[in-house]
């Protein structure tokens, strides 16, 4: 008997089917840059989709799998971006170190803020997430000498990767950078998938399903909310670090609550009960943003309408809807 | 020595005294029922024992250890398991996964992101064992939210069993159930008690269930213990008849 758990709990897929889904998803992501140029895509756009997809999947560990609302994940996204930027700007021209420090900065604050709000639930928890993210925003905004304030942190570029004498040029080649982002995305999703199939991951799902039942099985809710929050911020800060590398730039809007909202919209749009839902949501969101903003400055109102339609008619998100149909 | 000792426990909510100076001992292997009319303080009494909230006064001992101020999670670690009047399960997970979460937590794996092959096998065998005990093998891979009321209740009891508790506390296990389902759940409780030797304390409204199951019965009215004894003694007790049986039937 298998003891593994499909994270897509609402519509459990057979193990064979799951492998098929995975192969299809990865084939698509690997092949995407080769043909999507024909429908208006470009390298930086694909990277942005992956990066926001990762941020939204990180958030979704909390939102969809632990059942806790965070409207402040921009904090960890932005801290990840600044952490990476600081390394490249002030310290050392190394992409791996930049990413590591970005993760560290975002996650340390995730751990601290998580500890401060783990005893709160529902709307109080959500309000605190916003409050903490706004604190980070105003810090970045005001601390001119370090963060560059309103103008953002500039004057750095991502460094090529060195493996002994072999050099991978992720700096000047956008396509190579996409595959670099995809490799990190792969590692992160593999870790998230493994987490959700582990005892710790199942306690997160237990909290979503019924916190009282979880407590009376011997799961201390607060501790597990804290851990889930910290892990969630870790993956979102990976995305933030990559975002700084993509743009060679970090600015306070990466920490702003609008980004928090966007990440939540991506997760809900794609389907937050589904592991891959937030990636689909991010793809739709980022693509539409790119396309519609080239036509009109009021692109957000179009996204808003689409979001409302999805929430009203496909409450399980786009992927949830597709899976329901095919099941 | 008694497994669970309750010494002069009271609980007041403001000026309302919901439980007033109740003392009782539960012996290992015993099946004890607590009955009483609506508002008698049964559920409050139950919540005091399981650590939902602390008593205003009095003392609770499990295995001789004072647990009066222990948290719910600490009590569960010491061997208490409970079910709720309104079934509390993880509806969007399968029966197996519901039991798995209980088993992994009880086996100390709740913070683990990885289990060895031997540990996975141990979890697996505890799940299977629990499924068999609760007669849920056929429902194992169905979403527990889609099962019948009776099976959902069995699944909730199974989650408690997967904790391998020293004492099982059931809050109105047949509440809101039809004839058939009441029979099913009562049967499960009887098997657990008679064949597996579980120590069980249950709060119940359904008199037939209690008189057929319990070794001893405690009657609560208005938060006070009115009587205690075997089902026969309770049925013949004039005070109980006046306070409870007379109005219930």
Question: What secondary-structure arrangement, pairings included, does this model have?
Answer:
The complex is a heterodimer of chains A (327) and B (249).
Chain A: H1 15-35, H2 43-63, H3 74-91, H4 95-117, H5 122-142, H6 144-147, E1 161-163, E2 166-168, H7 174-196, H8 199-209, H9 211-215, H10 221-247, H11 257-270, H12 277-293, H13 299-313, H14 317-326
Antiparallel strand pairs in A: 1-2
Helix pairs in contact in A: 2-7, 2-10, 2-11, 2-12, 3-4, 3-5, 3-10, 4-10, 8-10, 11-12, 11-14, 12-13
Chain B: E1 4-13, E2 16-26, E3 31-35, H1 42-50, E4 57-62, E5 65-66, H2 72-77, E6 80-83, H3 95-106, H4 117-133, H5 149-162, E7 167-171, H6 179-194, E8 199-203, H7 207-213, E9 216-221, E10 224-229, H8 231-236, H9 238-248
Parallel strand pairs in B: 3-8, 3-9, 6-7, 7-8
Antiparallel strand pairs in B: 1-2, 1-4, 4-5, 9-10
Helix pairs in contact in B: 3-4, 3-5, 4-5, 5-6
Describe this structure in words.
The complex is a heterodimer of chains A (327) and B (249). By secondary structure, chain A is mainly alpha-helical. Chain A has one domain. Chain A is built from 14 helices and 2 strands. Chain A has helices at 15-35, 43-63, 74-91, 95-117, 122-142, 144-147, 174-196, 199-209, 211-215, 221-247, 257-270, 277-293, 299-313, 317-326; strands at 161-163, 166-168. In chain A, helix 3 (74-91) packs antiparallel against helix 4. The longest helix of chain A is centred in the C-terminal third of the chain and has 27 residues, at 221-247. Chain A is globular, with a radius of gyration of 19 Å. In chain B, a hairpin with a 2-residue loop joins strand 9 (216-221) and strand 10. With 249 residues, chain B is α/β, with parallel strands linked by helices. In chain B, helix 3 packs parallel to helix 5 (149-162) and helix 5 runs parallel beside helix 6. Chain B starts with a strand and ends with a helix. Chain B has a 6-stranded mixed β-sheet, sandwiched between helices. Chain B has 2 domains: 1-79 and 167-249, Rossmann fold (3-Layer(aba) Sandwich); 89-164, no CATH class. The radius of gyration of chain B is 18 Å and the shape is globular. The chains are: A mainly alpha (327), B alpha/beta (249). Chains A and B meet through helix 8 and helix 9 of A and helix 2, helix 3 and helix 4 of B.
């Amino acid at each position: 008997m298998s003891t593994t758990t499909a994270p897509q709990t609402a519509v459990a897929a057979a193990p064979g089917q799951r492998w098929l889904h995975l192969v299809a998803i990865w084939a698509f992501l690997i092949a995407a840059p080769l043909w999507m140029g024909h429908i208006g895509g470009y390298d930086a756009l694909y990277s942005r989709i992956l990066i926001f997809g990762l941020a939204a999947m990180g958030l979704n560990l909390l939102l969809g799998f632990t059942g806790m609302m965070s409207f402040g994940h921009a904090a960890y996204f932005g801290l990840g971006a600044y952490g990476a930027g600081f390394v490249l700007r002030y310290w050392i021209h190394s992409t791996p170190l930049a990413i590591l420090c970005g993760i560290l900065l975002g996650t340390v604050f995730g751990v601290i803020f998580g500890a401060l709000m783990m005893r709160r639930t529902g709307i109080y928890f959500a309000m605190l997430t916003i409050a903490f993210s706004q604190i980070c925003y105003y810090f970045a905004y005001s601390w001119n000498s370090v963060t560059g304030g309103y103008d953002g942190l500039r004057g750095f570029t991502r460094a090529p990767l060195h493996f002994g004498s072999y050099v991978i040029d992720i700096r000047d080649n956008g396509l190579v950078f996409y595959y670099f982002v995809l490799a990190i995305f792969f590692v992160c999703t593999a870790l998230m998938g493994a987490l959700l199939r582990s005892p710790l991951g199942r306690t997160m799902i237990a909290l979503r399903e019924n916190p009282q039942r979880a407590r009376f099985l011997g799961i201390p809710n607060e501790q597990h909310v804290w851990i889930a929050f910290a892990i969630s911020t870790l993956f979102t800060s990976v995305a933030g670090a990559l975002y700084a590398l993509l743009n060679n730039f970090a600015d306070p809007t990466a920490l702003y609550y609008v980004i928090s909202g966007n990440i939540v919209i991506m997760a809900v749009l794609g389907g937050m009960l589904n592991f891959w839902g937030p990636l689909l949501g991010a793809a739709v969101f980022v693509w539409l943003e790119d396309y519609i903003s080239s036509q009109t400055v009021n692109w957000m109102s179009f996204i808003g309408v689409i979001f409302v339609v999805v929430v009203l008619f496909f409450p399980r998100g786009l992927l949830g809807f597709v899976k329901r149909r095919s099941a | 020595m008694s497994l669970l000792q309750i010494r002069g426990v009271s609980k007041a909510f403001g000026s309302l005294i919901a439980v007033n100076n109740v003392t009782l001992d539960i012996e290992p292997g015993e099946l004890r029922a607590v009955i009483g009319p609506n508002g008698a303080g049964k559920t409050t009494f139950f919540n005091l024992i399981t650590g939902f909230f602390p008593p205003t006064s009095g003392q609770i001992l499990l295995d001789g250890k004072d647990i009066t101020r222990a948290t719910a999670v600490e009590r569960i670690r010491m061997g208490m398991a409970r079910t709720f009047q309104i079934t509390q399960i993880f509806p969007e997970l399968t029966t197996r996964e519901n039991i798995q979460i209980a088993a992994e937590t009880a086996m100390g794996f709740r913070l683990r992101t990885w289990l060895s092959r031997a540990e996975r096998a141990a979890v697996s065998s505890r799940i299977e064992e629990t499924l068999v005990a609760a007669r849920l093998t056929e429902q194992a891979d169905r979403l527990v939210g889609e099962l019948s009321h009776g099976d959902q209740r069995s699944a909730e009891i199974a989650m408690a069993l997967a904790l391998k508790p020293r004492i099982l506390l059931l809050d109105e296990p047949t509440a809101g159930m039809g004839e058939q389902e009441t029979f099913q759940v009562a049967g499960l409780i009887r098997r657990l008690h008679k064949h597996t030797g579980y120590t069980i304390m249950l709060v119940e409204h359904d008199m037939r269930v209690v008189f057929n199951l319990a070794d001893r019965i405690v009657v609560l009215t208005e938060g006070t213990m009115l009587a205690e004894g075997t089902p026969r003694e309770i049925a013949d007790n004039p005070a109980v008849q006046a306070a409870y049986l007379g109005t219930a039937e």
